[in-house]
Structure formats: structure tokens, C-alpha cells
Amino acid sequence: MCVADDGSPDGTAAAVREAAARHPGRVELLERQEKGGRGAAVIAAFKQGLADPRRYRYLFEMDADFSHHPRDLPKFLEKLATCDMVIGSRYIEGGGTSDWGVLRPLLSWLANKYIRLVAGIPVRDTTSGYRGYRREVLEAADFDRIKITGYVVHGEMAYQAWLNGFRLGEVPIHFRNRRRAASKLTAEEIYLALVNFALLRRRYGKVPRRREDARAETS
Fold first, then answer.
1. How far apart are CA 214 and CA 216, in angstroms?
2. CB proximity list for 100: less than 8 A, separation 6 or greater
3. Cβ atoms of 170 and 131 closer than 8 Å
4. 3-state DSSP helix/strand/coil percent for the chain, to nearest 5?
5. Could you give the dihedral angle defined by the CA atoms of residues 157, 158, 162 and 164, in that order, rounded to the nearest 10 degrees?
6. pLDDT tens-place string over residues 9-39
7. DSSP letter at 209?
8. 87, 131 in Cβ contact below 8 A?
9. Could you tell me if 15 and 65 are in contact, meaning their C-beta atoms sit under 8 angstroms apart?
10. Cβ atoms within 10 Å of 61's Cβ, excluding its own
């Protein structure tokens, strides 16, 4: 397990170092001094995972505060038997959220509707950060081409995977908002995300590559 920490002031790095000392070889800390946002940290962690000599067949991304619960991992592994990239979805049957208040669920739902409309990605929860990937999906990803460094980097990664002809799938998850103070999206980050998603088809093209049995599964 690799925990990417972007200079967080909440003591994450110290907690991970303690866990690494208790479980040598099983827990790693990727400590980044610059504050590059969720997306930059995710990309750095994936690059480190791909470079690991153990050559992992599957790589997973999740929040480390139990907003994404590890008990859902077997569902991801089962779905990865038939899909190349699996998203933990709040917006398919069996999924949901809690402790989000009133406005945030509406904004999240509208954002996913917008992304699906302007980009055409055939999944319902492109902004979810709970994901499982076959190694091949990340090896084919062009990380240097990704424009967004914040939370919504997930939409562009899903778009790349879809255009590369990989099979996308979703499994239901229940997202519980963290009990400690959460990072807030800035107005600038939201604006840049809306513009970037609107331009994805122009930047990448809009016709997925043909792969053997390529398809999207949304249930």
C-alpha cells in the first residue's frame, strides 16, 4: 500500500511512517512537498506503482480516511475479471452517500451529468476517486497530457481509458463524508474543470479505439 501525502497538515505522513515501521515492505509513504492537489498526488502514486519491480497486476485508488471503505475491494476484484477499469459508483443501484448535507450531493450529481453530456464517457460516476485498474490501463495512460491536477482528474483519466478502448465498469459504493474537515474545491478549480471537460473531445478526439471485446459496463 502506498499513501501519497501532499504536505497535509493533519499528521497523515507521521501516521503512515508509524504504520510502515510496523509493517515493513507493506506500507509506503510518497511524501510530496509541493501542494499539487489530489490529481497530481494520484498521478505520482500511479507512476511509482507502475515502476515497482513487483509489477502489480491491479492498482487501486481510494481515500485513506474510510470515506471509501476497504470492504468494497472484493467487488472491484470481481468486476475486474470482465472490465479493465472499475469505478466505485455512488449513482448506480446500491450506491449512495451520507453526511454530505444538501448542496454537495446535488452539485456532484450535476457535475457527473455534465461530464457525461459533454465528454460522452459511458459511466455514471466519473468523479469518484475509488477505482480499480488493470495495469494495462495505466501503462497506456498519457499522464503528461492531463491538464487538471485537482479532484476532477478522474474524469480525464476515465476519458483516456475509454478512448483507448478499455472496458469500463462500475460497482456500487456508499461514500461517507469524512468527519474531519474536508478539502474544499475552489471556484477557480470548478471553472477550470468545466472548461477542460468541454474541451476533451477537441483535445483527444471522440472515437474510442477498437479493442477485442471492448465495451462499457455500467452495472
1. 7
2. 108, 175, 177
3. no
4. 40, 15, 45
5. 20
6. 777 788 888 888 998 888 888 887 766 677 8
7. P
8. yes
9. no
10. 21
